[in-house]
Amino acid sequence: MFRYGPNLSVLNIRRSLIIKFGRRIAESLIAILLIAALISGAVGDWQSLIVIVLIVVFSIALDVVQEQKAENTVEVLRRSVAVTTSVLRDGRPVELAVPEIVPGDVVEFSPGVRLFSTRQRRRRPKLSTI
Length: 130
Prior knowledge:
The protein is mainly α. The chain has helices at residues 17-25, 28-42, 46-80, and strands at residues 84-89, 92-97, 106-107.
């Protein structure tokens, strides 16, 4: 665990609101609309300038609010779901939380369990009785 760190697939990366707004303004369609608004203002069409800027600001604000709500929902779900699995560690079955699984642990699967992995799957040798 100390060598590899926790077995987490998604890190919680939350950006500030300023960065979120900046990323939206840098999008090509938004940039084109803002350039069109500047051109409208330069030729004296103040109504078009105001309408375009208001629509862009409203669109960006709505997008950022939705992203913020989605991030909050994901965080609540992540905290509410504690996923554990059975692994063979040092030859003994142990029940562990998924972030505690490290390379070398053999994960045990039972019928009906879904497997999402790109690793090789080891099969148990068939046991026979004489």
